Amino acid sequence: MFEVRVPATSANLGPGFDSLGIALNIHGHFLFEKTSSPDKKHLTIKAYRKALEWLNATGPDLQVSTPKKIPVGVGLGSSAACIVAGVLAACHISRQDVPKRELLQMAAALEGHPDNVAPALYGGLVSSGWREEKVFSGNLPLSGKIAFAVLIPSFSLSTSTARNVLPKNVSFSDATYNLSQLGLSISALANGDPELIRHAFDDRLHQPYRFPLIEDIDQLIDIAKQSGALAVTLSGAGPSLFLIRQRGNKLEGLIPRLAECKHRWKLRLCLPDMKGAQLKEF
Fold it and tell me: What's the fold here for domain 146-270?
């Protein structure tokens, strides 16, 4: 038996659409055991089998249980976590020491985009992108002055639904605006300047089209900022929200005000996970 622990991830962070992602200290725990009747439809087992093929290796049938889960369908990288767990399981079973950059290629190919799997593997704040059918990724600095939080709703939103509302083309002015915001956001996360953070996470490429899918969105953004959040973005495709706060500010005034919203929302304070996915054998 062995366990893979994978952090939840928040992608995009406003202007970093399909490129930025951060690992959070909310974890999914995947316990693997040999079995004679595997659940071949389980995403983790699919990833395990596919990774074995890529590694030109064979391995036993495995079953996976998840005593601690990342919330599903709310924009916290649950599918990426399943894929990363399966890929690491295949490397462990095959006894191959595979560089993380190759693990990333496998995981990103299965997920279809790297912005969640990259931070899930590497930990911390990560930028990623495709070039000539390969994924390139690098860690970015994070200030110790800031911390994070997520607002998790009682409902889910499929990534396909959130993708389908996006336009096929955007204006040149919106593209350049997002590039300027992206640069500012990376700087703000590195230096932790509260004033810069307040003005650095706006987006024109995806959030204006996805926000209407979340009924409480305007109210949530208002009360989060009134309660001390420096910035509020969608977490991935949503519907969870990613909040940036000053370290030590627990946003205590936000919790009672969540009752004003139509849907139930849960506030979870978090810090960055700087290690990424970890495997432990029992």
Answer: Alpha-Beta Plaits (3.30.70)
pLDDT tens-digit series, residues 213-223: 999 999 999 99
What pLDDT is recorded for position 224? Answer: 97
Q: Are 107 and 80 in contact (CB under 8 A)?
A: yes
pTM for the whole thing?
0.96
Q: At what angle do helices 78-94 and 43-54 cross, to 10 degrees?
A: 40
Run of H or E including 81: helix 78-94
- Asked if domains 2-141+273-281 and 146-270 share a fold, the reply is no
Chain Cα centroid distance, residue 84: 12
DSSP string, 165-178: TS-S---HHHHHHH
Domain residue ranges of the chain, discontinuous segments joined by +: 2-141+273-281, 146-270
At the top level of CATH, the class of 2-141+273-281 is alpha beta
Distances (CA, A) of 2 to 32, 204, 257: 5, 44, 42
Do residues 241 and 232 lie in contact, with contact meaning Cβ atoms separated by under 8 Å? Answer: yes
Give CA–CA dist 8/26, Å, rounded.
5
Q: What is the pLDDT of residues 160-206, one digit of tens each?
A: 899 999 999 999 999 999 999 999 999 999 999 999 999 999 999 99
Q: Other C-beta atoms within 10 Å of 66: how many?
A: 16
User: How far apart are alpha carbons 12 and 14 in whole angstroms?
Assistant: 5
AA letter at 103: L
Residues in the chain: 282
What averages of pLDDT result for each successive group of 10 residues across the chain (282 residues)?
97 97 98 93 96 96 95 96 98 95 96 96 97 94 98 92 95 97 98 97 97 94 97 97 97 94 95 98 88
DSSP string, 47-67: HHHHHHHHTT-----EEEEEE
